[in-house]
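PROTOCOL LOG
Step 1. Enter all chains and additional molecules of the complex.
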Amino acid sequence: MERRTSRSSELATIAAEAAGADTSSVRLRLVHGPAGFTADGLSEPTADPPPPDLAQWPSDFWLFSVAGLAMCVSAWPAAATVFSEPFEVGTPLRTDRDDTHAYDGFSVPNPGFLNEPNRRIDALLTLNSTHWSPSYRDSLVTGAVLTRVCQLAVDRGRGPVVHLHSPVAPFVDQQISARGDGSHERLRDAIGPCVRLSVAVNPHEPTARLDFERGLVELAEEFGLGLKLNDRRFNRVPGEWFTIRGFDRERYRQVRARLFPETPMHLPKHAMIATVMGPARLGMAADVVARIRSSGAGVLAAALSSVRKIGFINLVVPLAEGADVAAPAWSGGWDDGLKLIAERGGLWDADGADHGDDGAFAGYKVALSQPMRCSFPQSSRRTGASVTGRVPYPLWLRWEIPNRTVGSPRLLAMVADNLGVYAEHTEVAYARARVGRGDLVRGRAKLVVLLTHAPRDVADAQAVLNEVAERVQERTLEQLTDMRWAGAARVRLRLSPRERWLTYSGMSA
Amino acid sequence: MPTDSRDPFDDLRALIETLPVPSAPPTYTQREAALGLALMDLSLRLDHVPRVAEHLTLIDRGHMTRSVSVDVDLAAIADAQRRRIMAPAESLHGNALWIPISRYSRSDLAPVVVKDSTGEVVPRFTHRDSNRVTAAAFVRLLTMLIDAHRDVTVRDTVVHKLRHTHQRSRWLVEAALAELVTAGSLPETGVRTPLDYARLLASSADGREADARAVRDLALAGLDELWPADGRNGIRLPFAHLLSLACSQYMLIVLLDAAHPRRFLAWDAPLLPGRRPSAPLQRLAQSVLPVNREFVVEYETAIPRSVGAYHLTVEVNEEVNVRRFVLSSDVDDDFVQALTQDVEMLAEASAGAAPHRKLLELELQGIASRLAEIGRRRLTDLTSYRRYIAERHRSLGAEPANGGPPGMTGDEVVAALGRGDCTVPVLAAFAAHYSADGMRHLARGPLAGAALPALASGIRDYQLGHDITTDNDPREHGAHAHWRRPNVDLSPHSTQPVRAVAYLSLADEAPALIEGITRMVAGLVAVVLGIGTLLTGGLAWLYSGAVTPNSVPEQADAVVAVLLLVPGLLIARLDLPSTHSVLGQLRQFQRSLAFVSVAVTTGLAIAAGTVHTDLGITRAFQIGMAVLCLILVCCLLEFVARRARRRSAVSRSARLPRWLLATRSRSRRAYAPDAVFDARGEV
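Step 2. Run joint prediction.
Step 3. Record the structure below.
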């Protein structure tokens, strides 16, 4: 018997969105550069711009910033052009900002990638219990773990990786004595050596889901990783976790030493961003990550996402010792890109084995940033440095705003400016926004703040962060109201130091 | 229903085999394709329709008129979408939009006139145009799927050929899609093509590329490549579903002025014919036994998932009473189905190598929390149902409230669930224990292992995903149910319409025909008793077998006249309805009683006129009296049956969820309804 499916209406929606008479393809702009750019102004394409009324208002916006490097994608619906390839990317364009390059891309709509009515499994894998300071060797282990996780999602979960980020804010369960009524959560680090991913599985294939979860448990046991899964109890919101196992430091170190005995244990100084793009498909992440890993490159940080059904696999690859730090930014086809990644970031003599058919990579494009200097947080709450106050803390933001009023980059810049009163350093670590039903832009972001006045203790830090979040939220809302455009009443914005208080769904950071 | 229909890919293949191979591409414009896709998207979701009301009138036992009204909120349609559905600028009203407000089956071809709140007729999109833009939409979708396919840049693959070098095959697929959408496909038989009537010889394998065979083969290979049957990329099923909807339904599309975003529209849907399920024994019993027959109507419909409020009002003939009216929808069915599958999966997994203990705990906690939520919801339904029943009949009110089930301990609840007992009281008790933190460690408990298969079958059997909405306007000759989408949608991603069944039981309530007939029969008994007693000079003839001499009436004409005139006058006073009406069906048995009683007296009259022996006349009166008394007993039994029917808390219908039936001790055999009206093809 044919199963009832909601995917047909998703298919119709995607096709309808994609097939406007003047908007039957997707234009996008990818920006690579040192962290700290607000993306406001940078994300507008210069060559072959979209219609003027659309240029300022990307339908999708995505940003990830880590280790002093940032990557950002904006996408617009655009008129169709002559078809030659499903995905095209232009040469790197210099921008006004140092070391920052933009890549203009073009894609055909991809209605075949359906994942909306799927059930999500979120997992949080802990790769270490200290603050985030990945050595060359750690980056290879991260690469190995990512490869296995993505492979598990395809082979066992039979579903796509909706998003994957590393590093992300770690999560520590509250002790029973400190739990209170459970409405609060422990103060978290802004980033930690963790991988957070979300995999869409078919709700009518629970066996696949359990197989995938079992695979995760096996992986965690093999590498000594900590594993948390999203709490699936009814009435629980994303951001609440169920601990399956804790991090096993000894096991992790043993595995790391066994797998990569020769690789150095110090922090890389330079890294580059490798972005692989193409029409999103089931298994894309697994294929790409496995092939990059087999080229011998490590992974400092990763951000997998899809924007308008275009898959983006962004990997921050540490530059191999001795590699040319002045290598230029590059963009082009998959084969050449892979060679360049191996050349610039190859850390060990990998097997180089053939991972499946080459047809799987047809149509994927690669954009490589020039090598950039990377920076890592000096301390974390968990390493006992919280008393010094020099700890970056996360703030989560969620907003809903009518389309074509305030663009997402500008809104983020406003919030960051308002935070500047209270923090000596503010950075948008992750942001994602898209135009949805009702012509509203819905977005989520994670900001990292370093408070100006060092809090005395954890309780003080909590109190200060609460107050800062509330004040900045009110200030930003006031500013938005002052702009006096129609529909100001439909604006919703919430900033909070506690992720689950935002009760959004389907994001990670 | 579209979901039960055959695979539209079979139809597509049949058309690819037979349509003439096009030698030029189809001429659909981008605008048509965009309009078609936008209309399809809007009509599948109907997010812009926040409220639907249906008014049903039962006109006879097999037909129902149905008028539908909807509230439309154009503000729910995004700007980008509006640009695609905008009507050409020459419209008098400025910006006017084509808005789909409903879908209906292609088998309903009666014209539909849509009016707005002022009574003005709203312009409609023609079927021909609608078919054309839908065909354009599918052709565009095909192009998009080809362009985004991974093989599109790999030479010598099927998809590359279709896109770049062998366009005639692609045009053929496009023509087949357009033909399927335009001509439609019957759910039962599919498309009939000339190939069904011809036997073609297998052609030689090495044909030239330009041969029709080669073109068709490539087109067929393209279907397999774009929509692989193994479903790895999951596109085949959604596409097939979309296509089968497009070729089995029409969209009802109207032109609305964008300047007035909130509108009220109403139309009379085509007359709905009823289906009479076959149940010969039941029908026979209903016509010949004093069971106080009810006329049961089931109305099946589909409510768009995004609709917040749905009103269903029913109106019946003034002489017929609505005894019960209940609406049951499968709004939580997806959720419960996923829950059942999770339990079954865990049962299987636990039977093999058990999962990691914490993983098992997480799964069980997820299952338990959802089960508790379902328990809470169904308890709310059950409570409102009981209140409704109590309002209908006083004697039913006190019992469930005071005599409810005794409280269960946590162990008892778990044991009951382990036996597959998923009745609402058990689930409610489970929900109470769960929310009181009584179920914190399930992996070590009895629910983890062998109990799971029974629990899964219990959840499935009791149909816990179906809710109940009761009549909230209990009038005698009408009913109204107000269904609201739950505040927390348990299957938020689903866009499938909610299927709902309204159960309506109609009865002949006081002052009913049976009362009049009872009086008539009693009168006839009195007449026969009087004549018999006067003829025999005493009451002994009633109980004695002895024959009284000289009991033959001297003036037989007078007796015959009395025996013919009195029943004739009495029966003329009764209002016996036509058999085609609902009332006629309800009063079938009573009418038979009336006719039989008149037949008895007529028989007695004949006997009085023709029999001239004492024995004959005495026996005739004795038999007549016995039959009349039997009829009187039947009348009294009918009263008893009516009382029992009124007191029945749960109607015996297969369409009411089983959890409702099982709240009474045991499940009983369901009765077939008298008429089923199916409007599910319309959404």
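Step 4. Note key features.
Chain A touches chain B through 73 residues (CB under 8 Å).
Residues 33 and 165 of chain A are 18 Å apart (CA to CA).
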